[in-house]
Structures are given as structure tokens and as C-alpha cells.
Write a structure and sequence with these properties.
It contains no helices and 31 strands. By secondary structure, the protein is mainly beta. The strands form 7 sheets. A 5-stranded antiparallel sheet has the order 1-12-11-10-9, with no helix packed on it. A 5-stranded antiparallel sheet has the order 2-8-7-6-5, with no helix packed on it. Strands 3-4-31-30-29 form a 5-stranded antiparallel sheet, with no helix packed on it. A hairpin with a 5-residue loop joins β13 and β14. The protein is globular and about 55 Å long.
Length: 341
């Protein structure tokens, strides 16, 4: 195990300005940093100070702010944005780590994956700005390479993440102890992971067209068949798991019950749904990277494209009640959509 702590370097603090203007529900702002009011709510987008930072995933922190990863291999930062749009950026100690997924951990810090950060592949940053990074070291059977993707905070007080290279689900204690659990299907390429309503971790198998379940003891069950390649996954308000199928010829939102029954809902061609989260309104919200939309799906499967978004909507996270936050990967912005109290 490689475990080291470093103090954060604060690069810049920036207060984003966002103008508000009335617009019909399908209107697209002329510039990504403008705000648009729609019939369903209000959309505001905030420019990230560092150019071409490629913001990827976003999560609510224990401090009430939203935290997001800046994945450009030449940037390698973690961003924080408050409710007013003030953005602060922190440099990750591991250069070229390309931070990807992020989650609020059981210790109140933010934990994130670093797919290019070998030998350290998991990062931790406190809300006060102190970084620690962790690496699993080499394994006689799994080799030395490790490429984490999705990460979740488990009900057992540990972090759980997917490793595409070692084809495993990994448990990481807050003190830095790694345990690998091999996925039964070879080459499954696990992507997203989340805590299910049953207290287990549920994950997607992108190459195997399956959904997996692992309990906190490490026992894995796989379910299929999924028509497309499942990517991101979240727990829904209906007691089921919901996932995205982003490939251009897939373009579906999937639902799986705890018993393993899969239902898929088709989207418009080219929608490319990327990330999905349960909103405080009882619906699922997701980004359509290809279509440039923030969209919603009810637990009954009714899809509505709520807000047109320039700049490649990608990661999505639930903020304060009545708000959804998401990243604009190509547009170098993070955005908030407010739909009610």
C-alpha cells in the first residue's frame, strides 16, 4: 500500500457571474455561462476558471457544496462550487492522474478515482483542502496495473470502487486497506457503482452487458441480459436501480429490480445518456451528452427532455432539495437546475 498525505495548493478562487433571462423550455442560452428560466425551473451555468479542465463527475459534499473532478490530464484538479456559483479549485498532488468519479465518504471527506494516477489510484480531499492518495500495490494474480472508474460510499463505512483492468470490485477502508473481489465474468469491464436499497453495492458491467451485485462480504451475483453497454448506475426512489446505456446505437435508460428483472426505456437516437441520479422530486434525472439535454424519467418510464444545454452535459449529482447539478464536459462549466423547493 502506498499512502501519503500532502497539503493542497489553492490555485484560484473565482465568482462566476450568471445572468438570468426568460426563455421557453427548449431554448438554448447563447453562451454557456448565461442562465435561462424555463417552465420547469431555472438553469444557471458557471464558468470554471481553468480553461479546458474537462469537468467530469460531481457530488454533494458534507459541507453543503458541490465537488467535481477536472479530468484533463494537464489539469488534474478538484473543484468546489457553492450555491452562489463561487468556484474554488484544488490541485491534485498526483500529476497526470485524470480524476474521474467522486463521492462524499463516510468520514466527511471527498473520495475520487484517479484512472491514470498509478501507483496511487484513489484520492481523498477534506473540505478544508488536504489531500491524501492511496495505491493498492502489485498483486501476484492481478498484476500492478489498476484503473479505477466508479466509486461509492458503502453502508459498511468503507469505499467501494470498480477496477476495469483487474476486472474487480474493490473495497477500500478509510485507513487505506484494499481488498479485491474478482468479477466472475472475464473482461466485464465494470464502470458505475452505487449502494442499492438492499444494502449491497450494485455495478454495471460495460463489456458483458450485465448488472452486478456485491454484498459487503464480497459475494457477487450477476444479472443480464442488458441490450446495450451499461455505464452509470444509481438507486431510484422506487426501490430499484437505474442505469444509462450511452453508446450511440444503445441510447436507453435501464431499470433493474433487486430480484434482477431488467426493463429498458428507449431514448431518441443519438441521445447518449451519460450519468443518472435520483432527484428530490421522486424522478430520475440524467444527462444526454449527444443531444445536449438535461432529461428526466419517471419511475414509470416517461421521459422528458427538460433543459437544452450547450457544452456536453456529462456528470450529474443531487444538490440541495429542489436542485440538480451537472458538468459540461466540453463547455468547461458546471451548472445548476432548480426545479422547486
Amino acid at each position: 500500500m502506498n499512502h501519503r498525505a500532502q497539503l493542497v495548493i489553492l490555485t484560484v478562487v473565482f465568482t462566476a457571474s450568471a445572468c438570468e433571462r426568460a426563455a421557453p423550455p427548449t431554448a438554448v442560452p447563447d453562451r454557456p455561462d448565461l442562465a435561462a428560466a424555463t417552465a420547469a425551473g431555472q438553469f444557471r451555468s458557471f464558468k470554471i476558471p481553468t480553461a479546458n479542465s474537462q469537468p467530469r463527475h460531481i457530488a454533494l459534499g458534507s459541507d453543503g457544496n458541490m465537488w467535481f473532478t477536472e479530468s484533463n490530464i494537464n489539469v488534474n484538479q478538484i473543484g468546489r462550487v457553492d450555491a452562489k456559483g463561487k468556484i474554488t479549485e484544488f490541485v491534485v498532488p498526483d500529476q497526470s492522474s485524470q480524476p474521474d468519479d467522486i463521492v462524499s465518504g463516510p468520514d466527511g471527506a471527498l473520495w475520487f478515482t484517479m484512472p491514470s494516477g498509478f501507483p496511487d489510484v484513489i484520492g481523498r480531499v477534506t473540505t478544508g483542502g488536504q489531500f491524501t492518495t492511496f495505491g493498492p500495490g502489485c498483486d501476484p494474480n492481478g498484476g500492478c496495473s489498476s484503473v479505477p472508474q466508479g466509486i461509492a460510499s458503502g453502508p459498511d463505512g468503507n469505499l467501494w470502487y470498480t477496477d476495469g483492468v483487474r476486472n474487480a470490485i474493490v473495497r477500500l477502508t478509510p485507513s487505506g486497506v484494499f481488498t479485491f473481489f474478482a468479477i466472475p465474468t472475464p473482461g466485464a469491464n465494470p464502470h458505475g457503482i452505487t449502494v442499492g436499497p438492499d444494502g449491497a453495492l450494485w455495478f454495471t458491467e460495460f463489456n458483458a452487458n450485465q448488472i452486478g451485485r456485491i454484498d459487503v462480504s464480497g459475494h457477487i451475483t450477476e444479472f443480464g441480459f442488458v441490450s446495450g453497454s451499461p455505464d452509470r448506475i444509481t438507486a431510484g426512489p422506487d426501490g430499484n436501480l437505474w442505469f444509462t446505456e450511452p453508446f450511440p446505437f444503445d441510447c436507453r435508460i435501464g431499470r433493474i429490480t433487486p430480484a434482477g428483472v431488467i426493463t429498458e426505456f428507449a431514448l431518441a437516437n443519438g441521445a447518449q445518456p451519460r450519468d443518472i441520479v435520483a432527484g428530490s422530486d421522486g424522478n430520475l434525472w440524467f444527462t444526454e451528452y449527444g443531444a445536449g439535454q438535461l432529461a428526466q424519467i419517471t419511475v414509470g418510464g416517461v421521459v422528458t427532455e427538460v433543459q437544452s444545454v450547450k457544452g456536453g452535459p456529462w456528470g450529474i449529482g443531487r444538490g440541495a432539495p429542489g436542485t440538480i447539478w451537472f458538468t459540461q464536459f466540453d463547455g468547461n462549466h458546471v451548472a445548476r437546475f432548480s426545479f422547486g423547493p
